[in-house]
Design goal:
Elements (H helix, E strand, L loop, with lengths): L10 H13 L1 E3 L5 H9 L3 E5 L4 E4 L1 H14 L3 H7 L7 H15 L7 E3 H8 L9 H4 L6 E3 L3 E5 L4 E5 L5 E2 H7 L3 E4 H4 L2 E6 L4 E5 L2 H6 L6 E5 L5 H10 L6 E4 L4 H14 L15 H4 L1 E2 L19 H9 L1 E2 L10 H10 L1
Parallel strand pairs: 4-5, 11-12, 11-13
Antiparallel strand pairs: 1-3, 2-3, 6-9, 6-12, 7-8, 7-10, 14-15
Helix pairs in contact: 11-12
Length: about 350
Amino acid sequence: MFDASIDWQALPIREGLVSLYKQRRIQRMPANAPLVDELLTENFLEPMDLSTDTFLLTPEGVLALDELLDKHWPQGRGWVSSQSGDPCLPGEVFERRWPFVREQLRNDLPHVLNQASLQQALLGQQLDEFPSHLLEQLPQVTLSRDRSLHLRGQPDVRLLRRHGRAIELQKLLRQLTELVLPERDFHQLKEMEGELPALVMTIEDRGLFLDMDLPDGLLALWVAPRDLELAGAFLRFLPHWVPHVHFGDLDHQGLVMAERLGRYSQRPVRRFIPDFWSDYLADFSMPVEDKKLGKGAAWRGPQLSVPIIRLLMEQQRWLPQAPLLLDARLYDALRQLMR
């Protein structure tokens, strides 16, 4: 009955279905045109206001709508019914707010805008992505999630930008505990020059990242779960011959972070697990919790061949990396890794 090319998962199509369910009408736009055109072909819609391309459900359309939702979006009716009051979809909020904002729009609008802030302003809520069919109606802007890269080390490296002066890492890092490089500035980089680091290490624990001694040639990068994609982009920016290892907690989340870093960076996953870490099993390991996410979540998946991880999985325990900060052997293990 309906064209197979309709993407029933697309936000504009789902918004159109919900608009029909709630209000019995829909406004035709390029993003939902395939749905509207098919409904017109089936005589499920009739014109309401041709000047605005608005259409009403016909009696046949009202009868067919439930079947249409059940077939192509089974959760649709339940989602609408579960909302309190009269929920507004992002597209509906945008259509109300954008005409007003456009009239008052500043002439010096930045080329890069914070994604969360713009969504709150124009959609009234935050989504994973700003809907592309709505973004196309705005002036040409780039959206940023405004994450940050956190760096430590003493590399004699200059980060060359497309516009403006180069960022001299060594000079800044000698003056600061860490260098925080905003996502906006990172995306302006074109290349790096100078004495590249011998090794880049991503570190999960914030305190360990800040307080551990770093051998010469090691560039440390702190990665929070929300910043993994940006960290992966930074690793792709580095020349491929600069090796990378991940140093994280020995728990399920730590393994997942390493795997996601490998996927985002398009590099093989290599983990740094000092030999002496097994000495901590008796007094520092903790039982995993019966949950799917977060620190200490239950192990899932097949057992790994790494002895200490296999033992932790068998015993349903995990090891944080934070206590290693106090161990004098950590620096020696890092130096050996560098060699």
